[in-house]
Amino acid sequence: MKKLTYSLVTAAIVCALSACGNPSKAPESTQTKTEAPAVQPQSQNVLLAEFQGPYGGVPAFDKMDLSLIKPAFDEGMRLSLEEIDAITNNSEPATFDNTIAALERSGSALSRAFTYYGIWSSNKSSPEFRSIQKELAPTLSAYSSKITQNEKLFKRIETVYRSEAFKSLTPEQQRITWLRYNSLTRNGATLNEEAKKRYAAINQELATSHTQFASNVLADEENYVVYLTKEQLSGLPDSVVSAAAAAAEQRGKAGQYAITNSRSSMDPFLTYSTERELRKQVWENYYSRGNNGDQYDNSELIEKILTLRHERIQLLGYDNYAQWRLEDRMAKTPENAMDLMNKVWPAAIARVKEEVVDMQAVADKEGANITIEPWDYRFYAEKVRKEKYALDSDEVKQYLQLDKLRDAMFFVAGELFNFNFKPVPEGSVPVFHPDVKVWEVTDKTSGEHIGLWYLDPFARQGKRSGAWATTYRSHTTFDGKKTVLSSNNSNFVKGPEGQPTLISWDDAETYFHEFGHALHFLSANVAYPTSHSGVRDYTEFQSQLLERWLSTDEVINKYLVHYKTGEPIPQSLVEKIKKAATFNQGFKTTEYMASAMMDLLYHTTAPSKIDAESFEQQELTKLGMPSEVVMRHRSTHFGHIFSGEGYSSGYYGYMWAEVLTSDAAEAFAQAPGGFYDKDMADKLVKHLFSIRNAMDPAEAYRLFRGRDAQVEALMRDRGFPIK
Length: 723
Description:
mainly alpha, Neurolysin, domain 3, 5-stranded mixed β-sheet, two-stranded antiparallel ribbon, signal, metalloprotease
């Protein structure tokens, strides 16, 4: 998944309006210099204090304490609002330096508090933290409203945006000025006082509801575990059995085997277990998260969230939430986003029907006397894969060692980005869990320090499901150079003590995907924090593109070696993998697109017409959703869109980014040097990775490709017919 978004609506606004670095000197600019707000004294609260130590300073993860959270946010908000007051009360006319650059410099202490908060929220949650999180949500929302609805602040930003001097700013300065102006106008800055009060109240209610939604999902992920005995392990490969045994032991159930309520545990169990009733139980546990009719049920919360969002956008004059949300995205309108979906959807569900026919034939041939159900799909798809392509997923898994794949990612980063990764001495950089390891990233040629890369790869209690990337500090230069602190986080099931962790091909692609986000952070070459604000239907592109390097010969031949013998993966098996590349694309595309289309339907339908218990099924039936497949994220655990607003009305963005990805991958495939072509790599870094959001993404892509992306490349990639 894309970069971590906290389950608070306010967090995104806070980061958009405040710096993510430390204040030091005033920036160089074409504008007249003015005094910046005074730097506050060093805080005694470690969550607010400037990062200390090597590598430009690092977070003090070893000193985190829950008791510090509320005092840190109280103080951080106070300091931030003081800085805002200094900007708005400046008697000098508004300029880029004394308004926009000053805003970029403000809020750094609070931003550091959010760094630690994000770790608790995503990597080491607990009932105690969730209680604090719930209490903080409305307070933080009220704080952000004081900024987004600050009329004096808006007037100063508007003055800079509409000034004659705006034309003489650098392109990046013009872009961040527009981003700030646009963000405030879209978040209620121009409303009358009564409407502003209601807008702020809605944000507080939403913040609380988003937090509760995420907490409910996490509770169901922690509370539903299937424990197996030896007699119930039939069909499971040794790697899955070993991981299940380790998971059970971690939960105080030594001698048993735990299938946890996470995708990385559920997926292989449904693929290999011959125990159909147990497959059904594991499937129901996973896909019923947030929908069990108990205190953690999210159905009513969905209706509440949608109602509040709709009321809020009506205050701004929009017809529906998706219209407001997509206005500043690449898609621009929900109609454009849905149009892309409709180009792919018919081919996807048609392919599902073909896949089900193949699976049903295998089941009938074996005398199973069943009709394929959702909990059978992965199991029989694997049998079809073996029959059609003689490809055994578990055989492939023996060559996919987590550490070797990490080395492969480092190799790709060296070839394309000229980066070198070197482990930092253990203990020299604080970490928040013993599983977390850290590498220093440098330029291979000059030796210049680029930043640090943190890796937190394994599942554990208190860690949210899925995979994601984030930064603890982003590259900026406007106020003294700040280097990058980036992080990748996954939920792989750790291998037994002394043995490597083996993962599936799909998980290996996800590993590369998230590393693509890290490379996007590390390769940044922008001056200002706001240039790191993402365009959601574009930011997945860079990470999806990096997945393509997993299947390059250079990676396969060097890094895919058998975990016992050390022998390279046989060429015959590689050929099978490549031949089966479009296998099961009906399932993969349909489960994703069902979630993406439902996201848009939820946010283009009047909430009064939505009954959360039935809306999902009704709309999927209208779309012709095959009964054998369910949404990748069913509504009650669809955290992308209901535990925050980062992906709300924007989950389609993965498909939008896939169009860019397929088109860009064809450019590499056609280059003289293929996927390691130096000229293409230089263009990739220059136009698509280093500029972040300092340029309109559509323009950036055209600079790379020479034209707009075309959907036909995506259809070819998935083996779908092109009309």
